[in-house]
Amino acid sequence: MDTTAPTHPWDLPPEHTLFAVDIKDFSKAPEHRQPRLRQALDSALDSAFSKSDLLEEWKNPTYRQDTGDGCILVLPPARTWRLVDPLIGVLDEELHSYQQQRQFDDPPLLVRVSVHIGPMPESNLADAINDVARFVDSDAVRAGIAAAGAHGSYTALVLSDDMYRRVVLARRSRLLPERDFLAAPATVAGKGFTRTAWIHVPRLSPSVVAQHLKTCDMPPPREETAGAAPVAPSGIRVSGNVNINTLADKIDTVRTRQINRTDQASGEGQFNG
User: Fold this and answer.
1) C-alpha angle 110-112-190 in degrees, rounded to nearest 5
2) Which whole number is the average pLDDT over 75-93?
3) In 31, 124, 250, 267, which residue has its Cα 20 to 30 A from 72's Cα atom?
4) From the CB of residue 139, how many other CB atoms can be counted at a distance below 10 Å?
5) Does pTM top 0.90 for this prediction?
6) Where are the domains of the chain?
């Protein structure tokens, strides 16, 4: 009797590791260049999986989903610590080789990668596969790939907290210790998705990645209408001759007076905090 096969709909299916990869700005590449980009990605993945002793997992995954600009793999979990170390570093080297050899008019190839672990039924319809797709589309790993592109790397990895604990905290990674990862909330706008995640960009320190994460978190600059009174960061509207940089955070009411040369009040303004 197979004791691993669920016999009740509520039974937990076996755990699998999920790997998702996505090409940055794939849809912005000219249509006739997109097949070349995808071919280059598949070639880089084939080589990276092979050099990481995961060729069998690459060739015969439990499940493969083509996403056009990448793919999602469902893999048996036992050997998939190799997806974190050494595969990500090897993949980055393969993409660097592509960059050195690509034609002048070929688009650059930068990729986002997510790795997650969770229960997967035979139907492959599960939260885990949805989550790994969300992780690779999250603002956290998008900040990571922005940092990579700005500093000469080509890959950004996001690990779910579960995968981070299974591999990095459990010391199953010799080349990537805890200090090489940045904790960040992985959020996908409009999807109601926010999870704890861990970001790594090959050859970049987490502090560099953190700066790009802060930039992504900043709201767009406010457009000011000509002649409108300036607005303090708290939303306070100011009138009169006031330097808002000198205001305390919790001032309830401030009155300002504009004094002319005869020390007579020529105007008075008020704003409430």
Assistant:
1) 125
2) 98
3) 31
4) 17
5) no
6) 15-217, 229-273
